[in-house]
């Protein structure tokens, strides 16, 4: 048979298109192949999702646009997808009532997953911290050092963890501060400042302490029931003020210079003569007595704070002076604060025997002078005599007696 002669075409076979029919038959063939491939993919998806969605979708058979074409590959694709269900119809068809519950379960499952994940993460961190704890650190009371099996920390474990974190942070920061190069210079500067402040103002601190504790340490012999009673006393000259617990010796007739007066006040209360105030106890005129309210700790003497509470005296308070084996009683009638240079405040021109007590104020400083005036009530002031002319004073210091310079003032020559 001549191979070039036309071949007979079987009835059931697909006719081979000629060159003129190539454009008309190629497009349906491509569509048939594409539909066959899509049916294969649909079949695979249906095999994956089949039976899991719980959604009944009507069985539909896709209609191939090339169904009438005699293409064996297209027929094979149609046969493969003939009994398959379209996955798009399965996932996009109208859901039934149980579809919402399934989404809730799906959402809850994811929440539980993330919750367990983070719980296990923090539990492992706590276990690691407990494993690194120092041997001397004690375990939390009534608990183990590891969390519960379900990964939830108890209250005691949480408190123990928080306490250990605070202790560790405090210890770490303390070590950093101690090792800091700036800590030593700051501490040294602070210490120097404190030393200078103590040297300059120690009399203020000690004076307030003395003023606070003196009333509680009152001596029994300073309690006098009747200020007008004429009782025998010893030959020692002394001053007694029961209200502020003063019982100190008196140094009589001290010289006019400030150095002489400061030396006398180291041994007690100084009797100082001023113009118009040169009398002695029991004589008409003014008798002046000076004492320290405070003094520097480097100064000598046991009476550096004898008048620390003099400002507590009020009108009608009683002051006693033993002089020449006789007790003289005085009652306060006036109190003043004056400048150190106001010597004229001591000048008395009356006809009664009076006394004036002098000390520095405010407490612990020498800025001003506190003057307490008292008038004799016993013995009878009517029998008092005037002082002798030889007792008059013409040479006197430029200001009322004060305090000695502090240690720093002596070192640096300032006041």
Describe what you observe in this structure.
- By secondary structure, this protein is α+β, with helices and mostly antiparallel strands.
- The protein is 35% helix and 15% strand.
- It contains eight helices and eight strands, in the order H-H-H-H-H-H-E-E-H-E-E-E-E-E-E-H.
- The protein has helices spanning 22-49, 72-80, 87-92, 98-131, 155-179, 183-213, 258-265, 407-412; strands at residues 238-241, 246-254, 269-272, 285-290, 318-323, 326-338, 353-361, 368-378.
- It is rod-shaped, with a radius of gyration of 57 Å.
Key features?
415 residues, 8 helices, 8-stranded mixed β-barrel, rod-shaped, 3 domains, Sortase, Chain: A, disordered N terminus, alpha+beta, 8 strands, 35% helix
Radius of gyration: 57 Å
The tally of helices reads: 8
For the secondary structure, the number of strands is 8
Number of domains: 3
Average pLDDT confidence is 74
What separation lies between the terminal Cα atoms? 147 Å
Structural class: alpha+beta
The ordered string of helix (H) and strand (E) elements is HHHHHHEEHEEEEEEH
Give the amount of beta strand, in percent. Answer: 5-15%
Shape: rod-shaped
Report the CATH superfamily of the largest domain.
Sortase
Largest sheet: 8 strands, mixed, barrel
């Amino acid at each position: 048979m001549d191979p070039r002669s036309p071949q007979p075409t079987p009835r059931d076979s697909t006719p081979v298109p000629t060159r003129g029919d190539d454009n008309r038959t190629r497009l349906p063939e491509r569509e048939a192949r594409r539909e066959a491939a899509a049916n294969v993919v649909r079949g695979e998806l249906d095999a994956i999702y089949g039976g899991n969605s719980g959604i009944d979708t009507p069985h539909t058979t896709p209609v191939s646009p090339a169904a009438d074409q005699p293409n064996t590959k297209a027929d094979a694709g149609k046969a493969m997808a003939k009994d398959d269900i379209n996955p798009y119809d399965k996932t996009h068809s109208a859901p039934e009532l149980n579809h919402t519950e399934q989404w809730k379960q799906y959402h809850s499952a994811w929440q539980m997953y993330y919750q367990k994940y983070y719980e296990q993460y923090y539990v492992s961190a706590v276990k690691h911290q407990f494993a690194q704890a120092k041997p001397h650190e004690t375990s939390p009371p009534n608990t183990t050092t590891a969390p519960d099996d379900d990964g939830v920390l108890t209250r005691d474990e949480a408190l123990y963890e928080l306490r250990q974190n605070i202790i560790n942070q405090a210890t770490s920061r303390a070590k950093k501060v101690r090792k800091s190069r700036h800590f030593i210079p700051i501490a040294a500067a602070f210490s120097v400042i404190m030393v200078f402040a103590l040297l300059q103002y120690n009399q203020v601190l000690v004076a307030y302490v003395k003023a606070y504790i003196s009333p509680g340490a009152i001596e029994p012999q300073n309690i006098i029931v009747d200020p007008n009673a004429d009782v025998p006393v010893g030959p020692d000259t002394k001053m007694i003020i029961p209200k502020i617990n003063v019982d100190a010796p008196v140094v009589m007739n001290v010289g006019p210079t400030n150095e002489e007066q400061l030396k006398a006040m180291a041994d007690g209360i100084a009797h100082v003569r001023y113009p118009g105030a040169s009398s002695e106890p029991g004589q008409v005129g003014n008798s002046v007595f000076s004492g320290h309210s405070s003094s520097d700790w480097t100064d000598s003497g046991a009476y550096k704070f004898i008048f620390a509470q003099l400002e507590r005296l009020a009108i009608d308070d009683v002051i006693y002076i033993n002089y020449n084996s006789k007790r003289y009683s005085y009652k306060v009638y006036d109190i003043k604060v004056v400048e150190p240079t106001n010597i004229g405040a001591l000048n008395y021109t009356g006809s009664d025997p009076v006394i004036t007590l002098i000390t520095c104020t405010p407490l612990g400083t020498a800025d001003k002078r506190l003057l307490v005036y008292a008038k004799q009530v016993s013995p009878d002031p009517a029998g008092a005599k005037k002082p002798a002319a030889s007792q008059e004073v013409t040479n006197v210091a430029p200001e009322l007696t004060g305090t000695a310079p502090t240690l720093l003032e002596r070192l640096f020559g300032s006041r």
